[in-house]
Write a structure and sequence with these properties.
2 copies of one chain form a homodimer. Chain A is built from 11 helices and 13 strands. By secondary structure, the first copy, chain A, is α/β, with parallel strands linked by helices. Chain A has one domain: 3-Layer(aba) Sandwich (UDP-N-acetylmuramoyl-L-alanine:D-glutamate ligase). Chain A has a 9-stranded mixed β-sheet with strand order 5-4-1-8-9-10-11-12-13, sandwiched between helices. The first copy, chain A, has a 4-stranded mixed β-sheet with strand order 3-2-6-7. In chain A, β8, α3 and β9 form a beta-alpha-beta unit. At the A-B interface, α7, β13, α9 and α11 of A face α7, β13, α9 and α11 of B.
């Protein structure tokens, strides 16, 4: 085994999504938190993905993930099972999904058991999934140096204790503004983030959709990132996962956990999220290059830069 | 008359405000768009204010404005009249005021007639007021080099034609996100701002409350400013006016209309807005110094800075 292991281990949902937005509709398209975040991370680092699918999961999707350098041995295929299926729609400012259907299917009995060579992973992203499963993965990666997690309203209300246990054990949490308020009961985002910081994570990254993202460190805001201004959002599904994946992939590729590099990682996360929403499913990532990504990174910088006092 | 005239001329409401927020209540306190913006601008430049009050307007408020270097000869006092009175409350995330009462009083018959030496003003801010009055002021400042305006939902729906005429004649519009959507019928803010740019203004500054501000120039976003993270907002009244006043005062004080300086002006605007909401009425501005302002400007820079690609 090489002594340098800059792979990112990602666990989360692998899904078939039916999505309708004002700009179109896709049916049973490739989706899921682990898929969006793995593909986003794969622009920077090797990725190991952990998840579960049913027999209906098209082989071409696995082939696509592998073509991105993603190790898919951690995706279990359940004989006779059906893949997790989410159906939702977006309207208006598209900041909020309207969930029409959630068929957990093979996820109901999923027990993540990591391939042995996954267990030395230093960079771990616990994408949105049952926090009890996140804990089971955490128990299998004793050498992890940077662990991040995401979650959602469903687990905040339904599995709060397990989620708080996860938060005790991660370095970074990615959470959206509504979830941060729900988790803490605090309307003020700065207060909410401060409370979440006290639950455990050193870095609390609050995603605010079209309003960008804010990172809190040690009780205070340490970085505010604008969102990239798009004239048209085609499909917001997976934006948060793409953000987290881009962030983790970049950090792993550099091996640099300094605050300055973590800020750069937030911008890369924003960059991946902004590209992802420009098309349905994984379509945009399929045609994206690292040059596109670096160009938008620089564009982000141009947009927020201003001179210090003379 | 000096050849250098870096005063900012401001017209807008001068009011007595009754405001209730989760943190307290003030009754008939000093307020109004022209007051907030004039005091904010006064940290940088001389200010000339145009407005109208009734006999009930306390003399101490005029004395306070004069103590800030604000020329108040443009404030007409109507014998026997009553000052404009607004009553509102805020709850939850405080992004939206709940208007309880609007007594126009002396504003119903106001006809702005500028003192003769106001008419050479180069920097003009048409704060929120009936757009027909904004036009009457514009007609009296033929030497204006930089004109900015603000407005509100009431005029967008009630005096759209006059407002569009104002927009044709200004260089900068300050507008909040909800108003930008209302004015254009566009949900997407980037599209909305592009449309407003086509109505006339070179710079469209969209204020997004706790989410900061975005400036659009020539069909594209040219600057995104974070909002300053406050653990507690005491009273949001006047935040937008303070933003515009800080912006205009800074630009006038430098006489520099370069894009780089306009960006700095947006940050000064955000700085003044963030201070203003930390107390009721003008209380925060009464104890604020230029050192405080410059310190927070630097803090804004620290928060959004990240390295360019190496």
């Amino acid at each position: 085994m090489s002594s340098i292991d800059n792979s990112v281990l990602i666990i989360g949902s692998v899904a078939l999504d039916t999505v309708e937005t004002p700009l179109g509709r896709v049916e049973r398209a490739l989706g899921g938190a682990a898929v969006y975040s793995s593909v986003a991370a794969s622009f920077f680092s090797p990725v190991r993905v952990v998840g579960v699918v049913g027999e209906d999961f098209p082989e071409e999707h696995i082939a696509f993930l592998m073509s991105r350098g993603i190790d898919t041995r951690g995706i279990q295929k359940v004989p006779g099972g059906k893949t997790f299926h989410w159906a939702g729609s977006y309207a208006g400012d598209m900041n909020q999904a309207n969930t029409l259907l959630t068929e957990l299917n093979v996820f109901q009995s999923f027990n993540p058991d990591l391939p042995v060579d996954y267990k030395s992973s230093k960079y771990v992203f616990l994408a949105n999934i049952d926090p009890e499963l996140q804990l089971k993965v955490l128990d299998q990666v004793p050498q992890a140096e940077l662990v991040a997690c995401d979650t959602m309203n469903f687990w905040i209300s339904g599995k709060r204790d397990a989620l708080l246990e996860v938060l005790k054990r991660v370095n970074i949490v990615f959470i959206n503004d509504a979830e941060a308020r729900q988790l803490t009961g605090e309307v003020n985002l700065t207060k909410a983030a401060t409370l979440i910081h006290e639950y455990g994570p050193k870095y609390v990254v609050v995603k605010k959709g079209e309003h960008g993202a804010v990172m809190y460190c040690d009780d205070t805001i340490c970085f505010a990132a604008a969102s990239y201004p798009l004239e048209e959002v085609t499909d917001p599904t997976g934006a948060g996962d793409s953000f987290a994946g881009g962030f983790m992939g970049y950090v792993a590729s550099t091996g640099d956990l300094s605050p300055d590099n973590i800020r750069r990682a937030v911008v890369y996360g924003s960059t991946l999220a902004s590209y992802n929403v420009q098309d349905f499913s994984l379509a945009m990532f399929k045609r994206l290059t690292i040059d596109d990504i670096n160009q938008r990174y620089n564009e982000f910088r141009r947009i927020v830069h201003f001179d210090p006092l003379g």
